[in-house]
Design brief:
Strand order of the largest sheet: 2-3-4-1-5
Shape: globular
CATH topology of the largest domain: Methane Monooxygenase Hydroxylase, Chain G, domain 1
Largest sheet: 5 strands, parallel
Number of strands: 8
Bound molecules: adenosine-5'-diphosphate, magnesium ion, zinc ion
Strand content: 5-15%
Distance between the termini: 88 Å
Order of helices and strands: HHHHEHEHEHHEEHHHHHEEHHHHEHH
Length: 503
């Protein structure tokens, strides 16, 4: 029995006894006691919610080796951290210590991992909090939580016998937005407190606290945060390129049984634009599929499905009618034929299982990560986007609403062409280009591409329906199988159409 419980028990007994003797009026006393209890519970709950309530010595145990594809960010970070590892020499030379490191980049690229690895690398204790945890209705709570966090970091480092602590502030933009922008002052007070804490730190302090923060909106931050002596190191953590994705896939599959047919390089090539977190999800989904199928190893085909799933969402339960399915198949075959004609070997597979909002799709194997596009390449992409609805038109004599996204994409591409000086208008100044002129040029480009794409598709008009039936039946047709079909129907007229196309 704790002291608290003992006191409560005795109190109740005394009150009851006095009440029985009619020495005091029992009702108001009970009322007051109830009120007191309620207050107790509320305060207790708030305490439990505040970060101070759950303090544990986190040993992140993440090393830089477990972070893939961020070679330059890792190198920059390790360099910055060396000041913590060689503090004596830094102090001797009178170098100003780094107090804050800001990691910027899209979600899921490994910023949290980097902060944890930094703690391992420098043998520091690690505490983390997210910007949204500091946002409270009550003025002053955010600020006091910041103060608390720094106090706890020092206490924890002392308790663990460490020279330094790393505080990781995720989503710092929530509290670190420009001051004076918010309707109430709570945010400003929280930010001011953070700045005060950082300004108060110095090298002679023991243990030393390093603040690492993450955001994907560095442009939103209050400039005061980025001044020297605060977050004066910024490290960009970008989406991984192909090599990086391969590296991440290797890391994420290290402890998983893979079938001999698994080609991680192929998966890396197909996952352009994926973040580390998405790649982790792909590997995990693939493993789940193996489990569901009762297999003991993960096969390439499961990775393929997992990529689709992460990209497009879970297969939806709704089942379109047979006519709809066939139309979708025709549409997708249109995309696939033109893809293959313009970029032989580029079709990965055609699927008509509805996923997310799409009813079907053709996945292309991206050539390699690309950051620059030529005019030809942009035109090819427009052709591929338009081919779906044009195939429908050739087959049924009409179009459907299924091409809305395709059109959006095509007109975006056409707009890019105009802006980049790749249209008839030549070099243009985007700012002074009248909207009407831009629209007219975009429409011209699209009309021209429409004509060219229809010409590409026409020789296949009679054959599309047959393949569409197969796609409906099998739900998915592999790129290799599709190419076989395409090459199989190569009478003279087709061959000539293909050679002109690939020129
Ligand atoms: P961020 O903080 O940038 O949003 P996280 O570090 O929280 O991203 O990443 C979430 C998860 O995604 C990690 O736990 C890890 O499994 C995976 N991941 C993300 N980036 C990488 C990477 N570069 N290398 C290996 N795994 C990664
Ligand atoms: Mg994170
Ligand atoms: Zn389409």
């Amino acid at each position: 029995m704790t002291m608290r419980e003992w006191l409560i028990g005795t109190g109740i007994a005394v009150v009851a006894f006095l009440g029985m003797l009619h020495v005091i009026q029992i009702i108001p006393v009970l009322f007051l006691a109830g009120l007191g209890a309620m207050l107790w519970v509320v305060l207790d709950r708030r305490n439990a919610q505040s970060p101070a309530g759950r303090d544990v010595a986190v040993r992140p145990n993440v090393s830089f080796d477990e972070i893939g594809g961020q070679e330059s960010a890792k190198r920059e970070l390790m360099e910055a951290l060396d000041f913590l590892r060689y503090r004596d020499r830094i102090a001797q030379l009178g170098i100003r210590p780094i107090k804050g490191i800001l990691l910027t980049g899209p979600p899921g690229t490994g910023k949290t991992l980097m902060a944890k690895a930094a703690a391992t690398y420098t043998d520091s204790v690690f505490l983390s909090a997210s910007g949204s945890e500091f946002v409270e209705m009550y003025v002053g709570v955010g600020a006091s939580r910041v103060r608390d966090l720094f106090r706890r970091a020092r206490a924890l480092a002392k308790r663990e016998n460490k020279d330094s602590a790393i505080i990781f502030l995720d989503e710092i933009d929530v509290v670190g937005g420009r001051r004076g922008q918010h309707s109430h002052q709570e945010y400003d007070q929280t930010l001011n407190q953070l700045l005060t804490e950082m300004d108060g730190m110095n090298t002679s302090q023991h243990p030393f606290v390093l603040v690492m923060a993450a955001t994907n909106r560095p442009d939103m931050l209050d400039p005061a945060l980025l001044r020297p002596g605060r977050f004066d190191r910024q490290i960009r953590v970008d989406l991984p390129d192909k090599e990086g994705r391969l590296h991440i896939l290797r890391i994420q599959t290290k402890n998983k049984p893979l079938a001999p047919d698994v080609d991680l390089e192929h998966i890396a090539r197909e996952t352009f634009g994926f973040s580390g977190a998405q790649l982790e999800a792909v590997v995990n989904e693939a493993a789940i599929m193996a489990l569901r199928k009762g297999e003991s190893v993960i096969r390439q085909e499961m990775f393929r499905d997992a990529v689709d799933k992460v990209l497009m969402g879970e297969k939806t339960g709704r089942r379109p009618t047979d006519e709809e399915l066939e139309r979708v198949a025709v549409h997708e075959i249109g995309h696939a034929i033109v893809t293959e004609l313009l970029r032989p070997g580029a079709v990965s597979h055609i699927t008509i299982a509805p996923r997310g909002r799409a009813l079907g799709f053709v996945r292309q194997i991206p050539e390699d990560d690309q950051y620059l596009y030529t005019k030809d390449q942009l035109e090819q992409q427009i052709d591929i986007a338009l081919a779906g609805c044009l195939a429908e038109e050739l087959q049924y004599g009409n179009r459907s609403t299924g091409a809305q996204n395709d059109f959006q994409q095509a007109s975006q591409l056409a707009r890019t062409m105009v802006r980049c000086g790749l249209s008839r208008l030549g070099i243009v100044d985007e700012e002074h280009l009248p909207e009407r002129l831009l629209e007219r040029e975009v429409r011209f480009i699209l009309a021209e591409r429409e004509r060219a794409t229809r010409d590409l598709l026409r020789p296949y008009q009679g054959e599309i329906a047959r393949l569409a039936k197969q796609v409906v039946r099998e739900e998915s047709v592999d790129g290799a199988e599709f190419r076989q079909w395409l090459n199989g129907l190569a009478p003279a007229e087709l061959t000539s159409a293909m050679t002109t196309a690939s020129e």
